[in-house]
Amino acid sequence: MPDDPQWPTEDDDAGADSAPGEATLQVSRPSVDQPTMRFPLAAVLKPPSIQEPLRSSPVRSAPNGLGSGSSGPGGPSAGSGGPGGPWGGSAGGKSHGAIGPDGGEPRAVPVRIEPKSEQKTTELSVPNAKTARVDQLPHSEPSWFDQQGRGEQAQRQQTPAPQPQRPEQQRPERTEMLRVDQLQRQHPSQSQQPQRPEPRPEPRPEPPRAEQPKRQEPAELPVTGYDEEPEDRLTTEEPKKGRKALFAVIALLVVVALGGATVYAVKEFGGTKAIVTLPPAAPANVQPLVKAVTAGAPAPSPAGVAQALTGPAASSALGTVTGSVIDPANGTALWQQGDTTLATPASSLKILTAAAALLSLEKTDQLSTKVVQGAEPGSVVIVGGGDPTISGVSGKSVYPGAATLDELVNQVKQKGAVTKVQFDLTRYTGEALGPQWEQADIGGGSVAPIVPFMLDGGRVDQSNVNGARTASPAQAAADAFAQRIGAPGATAGAAPPNAQVLGEIKSAPIEQLVDNMMQISDNVLTEAIAREIAIKTGNEPSFTGGVKAVRDVLTKNGFDLTTANFVDGSGLSATNKIPAKLLTDVLSVAAKPTLDDPRTAKLRPLLTALPVAGGSGTLAERYVGTAASGRGWVRAKTGTLTGVNALAGVVVDVDGRVLVFAFMSASNRDAAKEVRPALDVMAAALRGCGCS
Questions:
Q1: How far is CA 391 from the centre of its chain?
Q2: pLDDT per residue over 13-67, tens digit each?
Q3: Taking the CB of residue 632, how many other CB atoms lie within 10 A of it?
Q4: What is the CA radius of gyration of the chain?
Q5: Which residues are catalytic?
Q6: Phi/psi class of residue 343: alpha, beta or left (left: φ > 0; alpha: ψ in -120 to 50)?
Q7: What domains can be seen in the chain, in order of their start residue?
Q8: CA distances from 150 to 122, 174, 234, 554 (A)
Q9: Which residues contact 284 (CB under 8 A, 6 or more apart)?
Q10: Quick one: pLDDT at residue 298?
Q11: DSSP 8-state code for residue 301
């Protein structure tokens, strides 16, 4: 093999002019038939450590670099390697180099020779390189190989644990005893550097070299201490064992490190108490109260409120303005301007419908839409349950928590094939459009015909709050159901008595429906809730029945409606007339700071349903400019019709006092640019009042 070291031939020392001198101990060359031990051989040797001076080998007793050598009886002589030699040494015979400081070339590991009392050992650690053959050492001194039972132990002490290697490295790095004369041959230039002579052992005659017998049995191995191992012990299997051991050690270290980190964390951050898991705290006792922002807030005076509102109320943009301001903590009227005069409330009338719903309906009640088995095989009937919020397209709805048409279709599909679809609208009676409602309001997005079955409040675009609505919401919804169920278009019909229910979906709870109708001022949803109040109170589920039910519930709860006159529940009709005081009376009960009035607990959700100035609902884009001080502090329901604008709600003044107000304006001025901003300034003036 090209990479194998070139051993000297039989005539390497022939003709060497070596004069007898100090005897040197020469390690015999191996025979090609002898068993070998393979180990790495460094290409170069490292410079000696400055702390530890390099010592000469006890194997060659002649000083290094002395240009002459001697041989024992029967042994070849070692020349100095002069200029005539093959390695650039001095003339006088072939030499394989002497060990000493190099002449500028780096060295791997220094050769350390330490004399001992009983034996002398040459220690040499050689990094991975070419391999060499090692045969018997001379019997002149007890050597490392001659110590029975210590060969393997010494190897374990001197040879580092095998490390994982890259795939291209096929031979593991090993540390073995090396023939000194071979190192001299590898580095002839080192023979020129003199070394400090060290004490040398007494030379002994080397026995005559004999023909090495071929190995027949493992017992005849010339190297002791390895009789139990096979010749090919240096294979790729050993690194695998080393890797397993290494991985085991690393795993053990990781476990120890984690354990130490845990102990450190426990000690560092409070010991065992720091990791004790405490039981969860008891649920908070929540009571819906409206309290002053500042404890002990001073009560405003009528004179102070009047002074704060004098300027804003006199704005020419408002035209004729009526209103009322009340302190709900004590019921004191702080400001009155035509508060009992009948005026058009527009959508602020929804405050009355919402209050009647909270006072008469259970907050957790839901509106149910069902599909039942029809009279004919394969036919089904959709029974409208008064829920206008059913979502026709999942993920696109202006009503939070709405049920979906797809959910209803999937339930019915599981019961069998459907060949005919009908829809039952008998839950409601009377006209579908309210008094004085205009057809133009349907296309304008204000309203749709009030029927007990529809999708998305009758909207064409499900996600557009103010988008156009359809004039036939029930038919459109039933056709959408039939298309998805795989049946022809739907027709109107009545459900058989006690028919089997094939599917059912439910709306959000009434409390959430009230909140939604107030936030986006939805007229269709408000009229549906008015009809539910009518059904609950035994009235006709129509416009007339809904109005009567609202009046009856509010009157029963102590509110004066003797002068109020309205024909719908949403305030869309321009003929509706109520006094501002009625609105502030209802809001004052809802805003009382205590719950001693049983009506207050039921009406409390009315306050949170009001849009927030500059934050939500119909007030999200308002309260800018001179009214900006009211942003976040004013909560109110808006009302808008042609020539009519209203604002009614609550506000917290700078002293931390809650005030209730209602303002209604009749003006022909620009509503968006003049009238509404003027109403916002009035409410913001109450916020900055400090009117004690």
A1: 31
A2: 444 444 444 444 444 444 444 444 444 434 434 444 444 444 443 433 344 433 3
A3: 13
A4: 53
A5: 347, 350, 521
A6: beta
A7: 1-235 (no CATH), 302-361+519-687 (3.40.710.10), 368-508 (no CATH)
A8: 15, 17, 19, 108
A9: none
A10: 86
A11: -
